[in-house]
Amino acid sequence: KQEVTQIPAALSVPEGENLVLNCSFTDSAIYNLQWFRQDPGKGLTSLLLIQSSQREQTSGRLNASLDKSSGRSTLYIAASQPGDSATYLCAGIPQGGSEKLVFGKGTKLTVNP
Amino acid sequence: GAGVSQTPSNKVTEKGKYVELRCDPISGHTALYWYRQSLGQGPEFLIYFQGTGAADDSGLPNDRFFAVRPEGSVSTLKIQRTERGDSAVYLCASSRTPPGELFFGEGSRLTVL
Q1: Model confidence over A13-56: pLDDT tens digits?
Q2: Fewer Cβ atoms within 10 A, N terminus or C terminus of chain B?
Q3: Which of A45, A33, A50 is nearest to A86 (CA)?
Q4: pLDDT per residue over B37-95, tens digit each?
């Protein structure tokens, strides 16, 4: 059974710092990987999708990469802002199975002004 | 609207009652997913539809849970004889074609007293 671990579980940083969130899968055979943001009491907002033929995606201050040999992904946030405070979730679709995303528990990020 | 719409946003019911949760996906999206999220956890897969048929219902916890998508658009998640342990946020997502980028709704928060 595919399991997803996100480290750290929580992170507090001062505004302006660059930071990295980590995600790892017990089975490295990942077809698609998606990073989401979740604000308290809200649904999930898609941030970045890394498809099967890709290794990296960038959107503004966000960059996500996937190492398919190890089943590890990182989300890099540059020049963090208080508005970045949220829980960040990574999720992957295992290869060769159903089209369902398997989620980690998330990293709760607080950016202090 | 342009996004995934879920109703009701909040539902409080008594143990043993029947509940229906509705999801209206993004227009043109053929795939629809239901997830359940408990406090502090990542979303947990319940069921996935491709068109009108359930392509994978392996996440439904027991036979009290059932979902339909009769016309390949709107879906309803039905929970019979609700139990306190069913209390959670039920999230719906859709994608244009699987496996693609998933877009989530705001969720339906179910509280069983």
Answers
A1: 999 999 999 999 988 888 889 999 999 989 999 999 998 889 99
A2: N
A3: A45
A4: 999 999 999 999 999 999 999 999 999 999 999 998 999 999 999 999 999 999 999 99
Amino acid at A15: E
Residue A112 is encoded by which pair of tokens? Answer: 């202090």
List beta partners, residue A92.
A33, A102
SS3 B19: strand
Query: In a mutagenesis test of the B interface, which of A59, A101, A105 is the best target, namely the one with the most B β-carbons within 10 Å?
Result: A101
| CA-closest candidate to residue B91, choices A47, A103, A55 | A103
**In angstroms, what separates the C-alpha of A81 from chain B's closest C-alpha?**
23
For A6, nearest residue in chain B (alpha carbons): B42
Q: Please, what sign has the CA dihedral across residues B45, A86, A105, A78?
A: positive
Give, for A19, the enclosing helix (H) or strand (E).
strand A19-25
- The closest of A56, A46, A41 to A88, measured between CA atoms, is A46
CB B20 within 8 A of CB B77: yes
Q: What is the spatial distance between Cα B75 and Cα B24, in angstroms, rounded to a whole number? A: 7
In SS3 terms, B7-32 reads as ECCEEEECCCCCEEEEEECCCCCCEE
A99, two tokens: 């089209």
